[in-house]
Amino acid sequence: MTCQFPVLGQLTAADVFRVLDMERRCHLFPWTEHMIRDSLEGEHLNLAGFLEDLLVGYAFMMSALDEMHLLSLTIDVPWQGRGWGRYLLEAVMERARTLDCHSLFLEVRAGNARARNLYERAGFQVVGVRRGYYPGMAGREDALVMRAFT
Ligand SMILES: CC(C)(COP(=O)(O)OP(=O)(O)OC[C@H]1O[C@@H](n2cnc3c(N)ncnc32)[C@H](O)[C@@H]1OP(=O)(O)O)[C@@H](O)C(=O)NCCC(=O)NCCS
């Protein structure tokens, strides 16, 4: 099995439980089965990274007119810190360009330093704050709204 970069592909409705497992490992407040099913069966876009048959990460996006919204970006725990989050994010930006989406927006927990570093290094800038947007372990947590031009 190669450990260079994952092969990019797409998730389907059959991947609901693989995504759910990863959500529960990687996020304090994971997407529910219902949210994942809605996303996979609805009009969201996704990109996923595979090592052979093993799902190692994914991104969910939504596009509207000339904007894309990154709804979720996750690299599974054993594979974090290898540059694969950056790789997947670049693939999302490339997908946005392909679809003529000139802006890519996302929301990130103010306290998620790792994700904020990743986004800032990829050229995202904070364009807004949603106060108390997320549930947190000690009360609500702000969301930073970030935008990059693709
Ligand atoms: C956030 C996440 C997607 C990053 O993916 P990753 O593969 O671990 O990150 P990468 O190895 O690609 O690193 C990309 C950048 O993240 C930052 N980063 C990585 N590890 C870090 C750490 N331990 N602390 C702080 N910043 C870190 C760095 O800026 C790094 O860039 P650099 O290598 O040029 O220094 C991944 O860790 C993850 O899925 N975390 C849990 C879910 C989550 O928080 N998702 C984002 C929600 S908005």
Spell out the key features of this protein.
150 residues, alpha+beta, Aminopeptidase, 7-stranded mixed sheet, 4 helices, 7 strands, 40% strand, binds coenzyme A
In brief, what are we looking at here?
The chain is α+β, with helices and mostly antiparallel strands. It has 4 helices and 7 strands. It has a 7-stranded mixed sheet with strand order 1-2-3-4-5-7-6, with helices on both faces.
Question: Can you offer a commentary on this structure?
Answer:
The protein is of the alpha+beta class and 150 residues long. It has a domain of 101 residues: 3-Layer(aba) Sandwich (Aminopeptidase), CATH 3.40.630.30. It has a seven-stranded mixed beta sheet with strand order 1-2-3-4-5-7-6, sandwiched between helices. Helix 1 packs across helix 2. The radius of gyration is 15 Å and the shape is globular.
Rg calc: 15 Å
Q: Output the helix-strand order.
A: EHHEEEHEHEE
Main β sheet profile: 7 strands, mixed
**Bound small molecules, deduplicated:** coenzyme A
Q: What percent of residues adopt helix (DSSP H or I)?
A: 25-40%
Give me the CATH superfamily of the domain at 7-107. Answer: Gcn5-related N-acetyltransferase (GNAT)
The CATH first-level class of the domain at 7-107 comes to Alpha Beta
Strand order of the largest sheet: 1-2-3-4-5-7-6
Anisotropy-based shape: globular
Secondary structure: number of strands: 7
Enumerate how many helices there are, as a single number. 4
What is the CATH architecture annotation of the domain at 7-107? 3-Layer(aba) Sandwich
The class by helix and strand makeup works out as alpha+beta
Strand content: 35-45%
Overall pLDDT metric: 96
Spatial separation of the terminal alpha carbons: 33 Å
Low-confidence stretches: none
* CATH fold call of the domain at 7-107: Aminopeptidase
